[in-house]
Amino acid sequence: MEPDAALLEEWRVRVLRARARLGWQSPELVARRHAGGASLALAAPLDQLYTATEVNEWALCAALVAREAARWRELAAALAAAALEDASDPATLIPPVLEEHAALGRLALLAAREARPDLMRLIGAAAAHSLPHVLDDTLLTLGAGAGGCDYELGALPAPAQVDWGALADVPTALVTGSNGKTTSVRLLAACAAEHGWPAAYCCTDGVFLGGTLLESGDYSGPLGARRVLRERRAHCAIVETARGGILRRGIAVSHAHVALVTNVSPDHFGEYGIDDLDGLADTKLAVAGVLGPGGLLVLNADDARLVARAPQLTRRFGRVPALGWFALDADAPLLGAHRGRGGATCGVRGGRLLLAFAGAEHDLGAVRDLPLTVGASAAYNVANLAGAALAAAGLGVAPAAITAVYARFGARLEDNFGRLMRFERDGVEILIDYAHNAAGLRGLLAVAERLRAPGGRLGTLLGHAGNRQDAEIEALARVAAEFQPALVVVKENEAHLRGRPPGEIPRILHAALRAAGLPEAALPIRPSELEAVQCALAWARRGDVLALPVHSAAARAAVLELLGAAVRGR
User: Fold this and answer.
1) Which of 106, 367, 451, 503 is the most exposed place for a label (fewest CB within 10 A)?
2) Domain residue ranges of the chain, discontinuous segments joined by +
């Protein structure tokens, strides 16, 4: 059935009654409709999260039965059968019921069974000592990095037994946004290392300590955050915090010193109830909720939605943390006004990247001389540098250390692996990048256009992951067509089908490219990323530029081997 306002209200009031019965004090509760249905989120004590899911399920199901009893008459039996099937020990199962008095009694029993007062006392004591905690199903960590200690949940000490003086926090940053997250994380880790802090960080490529890979894979969610904060050799923690992890499992970090939101652009619409840019911006801005009183929230002043939603943080979190604004223009009105009030900013003036922080201005270098900008042509990397500079300063990194890193970062392939990696082969300029949405592709192709020699041609690849809406896939094709490339190899992202049958994404892209006016002869289709790259390389001649978005780790490794590139430490 279509969820309407009345159903959401019936769902919500049942959750409120259950929460009152259980004595939960947190007031946060949000019910909202979206294109895929409806969602209700409620806050609960850390030791009651499984019970909270039972509260939510009961409240919705009871509301449905109250609305249309005949339609949902089998629901109670179905819930009981599912619970029995999932039970690890059927003898201990307390089967679900929908009648309210019995249901509230059941929820109280579940809450009592799940309650961990020993855990809550330890977490409260850690907060009193201004220490973070990290929690999962088996382990509690107090402190972080080199100052942390792990405790098995089955054998927790009493607060008086903890050597609180031996525990410590480490400077911690969260990085989120639609594009530029991994680049910003790597910049921050390099700045921390230059400052003298060995940094652990996680991103879509894995978990790292400095330049050493600890775990390979996409660790941009809570699992990566926990792994980073539990790395005992780390004196700084940098956590890439992707939208999917926030929406599915929340933010695993109890508090951070800096949070950076790079930008917000259309991507992943239709997943987890997020259908538009406002919802996506709100998701990204969740990182503001874990900033401590002295924390810094770094935002992109060139992103209209972040500018518009920043004043709403007070209503959402009860306060607005200290803000740092960055933009391509250091003298944009918002940045000028913010500096006038003593706020932190970073942007470009007279071709130089300028950081204003703690009442002083620092020249971080000529933009065109910073390797990551490719002679100032990569505007998106100028923005990444500006945002990361503010975040690094907020962590306590000296501006001189930031300047030193920026003068060299990006000159080596391993500095920013998989992002704007630049090669030359037989007079052909080759760019390998991760551009995975319309905004990212536009930035990559703009750099490629600047590198194209007179008379040279532009060639590119185009593919997409299967969990994107058709409109997002078609938008990617329109961006490619804006640059009038002489070749677009339409590829299958074979490692990212994500529910689509093989060939479906290439068909959508091909049709959109033809509709945008590109000729059939310029649009070969290849069934894999590597074959698409091989096609582009065979086509290119001296003076051409190839912009090659390559997304899977396996395909990227094969392409680098094809190009004869050796990247240390990967």
Assistant:
1) 503
2) 5-114, 130-166, 172-416, 421-562
Alpha-carbon distance of 546 to 562, in angstroms, equals: 15
Structural fold of domain 172-416: UDP-N-acetylmuramoyl-L-alanine:D-glutamate ligase (3.40.1190)
Task: Identify whether the C-beta of residue 253 lies closer than 8 Å to the C-beta of residue 290.
Answer: yes
Q: 3-state class of 267 per DSSP?
A: coil
- How far is it, in rounded angstroms, from Cα 204 to Cα 240? 8
Q: Residue 457: what pLDDT? A: 96
Q: Which helix (H) or strand (E) holds 549?
A: strand 545-549
Q: Are 355 and 367 in contact (CB under 8 A)?
A: no
User: 12 vs 7, 18, 30, 40, CA distance in Å?
Assistant: 8, 10, 8, 8
CA quadruple 181, 185, 188, 190: dihedral sign: negative
Give residue for tokens 């019995």: 102
Tell which residue, 252, 124, 186, has the closest CA to residue 420. 186
Q: Which residue type occupies 129? A: H
For residue 326, give the amino acid letter. F
CA distance 63 to 67: 6
Got the DSSP string for 239-272?
A: EE--HHHHHHH----S-EEEEEE----S-STTBT
Place of tokens 């620092």: 362
CA separation for the pair 297, 243 (Å, rounded): 17
Q: Are strands 458-462 and 545-549 parallel, antiparallel or unpaired?
A: parallel
pLDDT digits (tens, 9 = 90+) for 76-133: 888 988 888 888 888 888 899 999 999 999 999 999 999 999 999 999 999 999 999 9
Which neighbouring-strand residues pair with 240?
Answer: 175
φ/ψ region of 268 (left if φ > 0, alpha if ψ in -120 to 50, else beta) reads: left
Q: How many CA atoms lie within 13 A of 314 on its CB side?
A: 3
pLDDT in tens, 304-349: 999 999 999 988 888 889 999 999 999 999 999 999 999 999 999 9
The SS3 call for residue 466 is coil
Give DSSP secondary structure letters for 188-199: HHHHHHHHT--E
Cα–Cα distance measured from residue 196 to residue 438, given in angstroms and rounded to the nearest whole number: 38
The answer to whether 150 and 61 are in contact (CB under 8 A) is no
Count CA atoms closer than 13 A to 46's CA, side-chain side. Answer: 19
Contact between 309 and 273 (Cβ < 8 Å): no
pLDDT band at 293 (very low <50, low <70, confident <90, very high): confident
Judged against a pLDDT cut of 70, whether residue 464 lies above it is answered with: yes
| Residues written for the chain | 570
101 token code pair: 């008095």
Q: What is the amino acid identity at position 132?
A: P
Question: 308 by DSSP, 3-state: which?
Answer: helix
Question: Which helix (H) or strand (E) segment is 175 a member of?
Answer: strand 172-176
The pLDDT assigned to 272 comes to 64
- Which amino acid, residue 79? L
- Whole-angstrom Cα distance, residue 97 to residue 328? 58
Nearest-angstrom CA–CA distance, 419 and 86: 43
